[in-house]
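>> received
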Amino acid sequence: MKKILWIFVAILFYVGLFSVPSLFAEDTVVSAATGTAETVPAAAVNEGTTLKEELAQDKETIKTGKNEIKTNAQAARSEEKALREQIREARKAGDTAKTKELQAQLKTMHQENVRQMRQDKKQLHSAKKELRKDRKAKGRSGR
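>> returned
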């Protein structure tokens, strides 16, 4: 489960790292009225395609996030299920010390899984919020 989280963080870092230079890119535009060259941000020149690309990227991030949350939850359930089975076996064997140890382990594992799920959902929520913001910006620029 932690591997999946690290992979997700690495993907977000990669996307963030290579999208930052485009934020600071500038194009030189020659003004027809004055004949002088002006430097303007690239986003101002290619705003229509940039917004479409951002919307597509945000949709893909949300889709990936949802799939990752499902995968994480499924992995967490299977880990907890396996631990519960070990607890049942320890009870059958009459090993109370092992049972208590496994129960404590299950409790901490469950708390960590819940914390991770909440964090994943918070990230997904922020991605959805970004998508709404981009859609709103696209609607304003299209008018």
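>> The CA atoms of residues 7 and 98 lie 34 Å apart.
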